[in-house]
Design goal:
This protein is mainly alpha-helical. It contains eleven helices and eight strands. Strands 1-2 form a two-stranded antiparallel sheet. Strands 3-6 form a two-stranded antiparallel ribbon. It has a two-stranded parallel sheet with strand order 4-5. The N terminus is likely disordered. This is Nucleoid-associated protein YgaU, containings BON and LysM domains.
């Protein structure tokens, strides 16, 4: 007995009941395919491997080639020639994206959570200092405030001193002329400074990666130590261990700890999933 192939055109000449059944089946298949396929717009610095990592949790060649074959007509003959703005379809994508993190709030929520973690208090105070001289709601140290332009010193924690002594001079930036001004959060300086710190750390991280032909965006959605990488997690991790600690974690999977033994992975996990202006 031969094989009989029905086309949509042939179905139109069949009995109405059979024709309807075939079209309904075709609609069902199309809908099922659509449910398992989502669209993604290529961003600067994207590679097929990091896109595959984001949607499949696996950046191997087998995974990224699945995306490439579905988009060969868009990408062209060379799979490395992705261009920002290309609209790709991601076949068999898990809509829940296991390597993504559910949103936990906005930047203000992130800052409240960070302040609670840094101070250990439900309502984090500004006028607080720990045994190593880190101070304020976000536990600023001398080195960071030097980098941000609020403070000057030649001898400070991380450069000869065993703790933050605050024996240097204040620059007057944003009206802050003393340690006490800073602890009093004069002119809302601590909230301004933490945002400046976020921006500075991101700039430095991106700069170091770009010098090696890399991009921070390509790491988003990947995992380190079982923790999904997000921008908010990176911001907190850099606040804990600086941009160097983040770079070593991203590029070499090196896990560092602060003076109290807190792992960079702890901050990467604890502060993941907040929406920020830097996403």
């Amino acid at each position: 007995m031969g094989i009989v192939i029905f086309s949509s055109l042939a179905a139109s000449f069949l009995l109405p009941e059979l024709s309807d059944a075939i079209f309904q089946k075709n609609d069902y298949v199309a809908q099922a395919q659509q449910r398992n396929t989502i669209q993604y717009t290529v961003a600067p610095g994207d590679f097929l491997s990091n896109i595959a990592q984001r949607f499949y949790g696996d950046g191997s060649e087998a995974s990224w080639r699945k995306i490439y074959e579905a988009n060969r007509s868009v990408i062209g003959p060379d799979p490395t020639q992705l261009q920002a703005g290309m609209l790709l379809v991601i076949p068999e994508a898990n809509q829940s994206q296991p390597n993504s993190v559910a949103s936990r709030g906005n930047l203000e929520d992130l800052l409240l959570a960070l302040g609670r973690r840094e101070t250990g208090q439900e309502n984090p105070p500004y006028n607080i200092e720990n045994q190593l001289g880190f101070m304020g709601k976000y536990q600023f140290g001398e080195a960071l405030l030097i980098d941000l332009g609020y403070y000057r010193a030649n001898f400070y924690y991380g450069n000869g001193a065993s703790r933050n002594e605050w024996q240097g001079t204040w620059t007057g930036k944003n009206g802050v002329n003393s340690k006490q001004d800073f602890l009093n959060n004069q002119n809302n300086v601590q909230e301004t400074a933490i945002r400046e710190a976020f921006e500075l750390n991101l700039k430095r991280i991106n700069s170091q990666l770009e010098q090696n032909g890399l991009s921070l965006r390509q790491y988003i959605g990947q995992q380190r130590g079982g923790v999904v990488i997000t921008i908010s997690g990176i911001l907190a991790a850099a606040h804990l261990r600086g941009e160097t600690g983040v770079i070593r974690l991203l590029r070499y999977n090196q896990v560092s700890q602060d003076e109290n033994g807190t792992s960079i992975l702890t901050y990467l996990r604890e502060f993941a999933g907040f929406q920020t202006p830097y996403d």
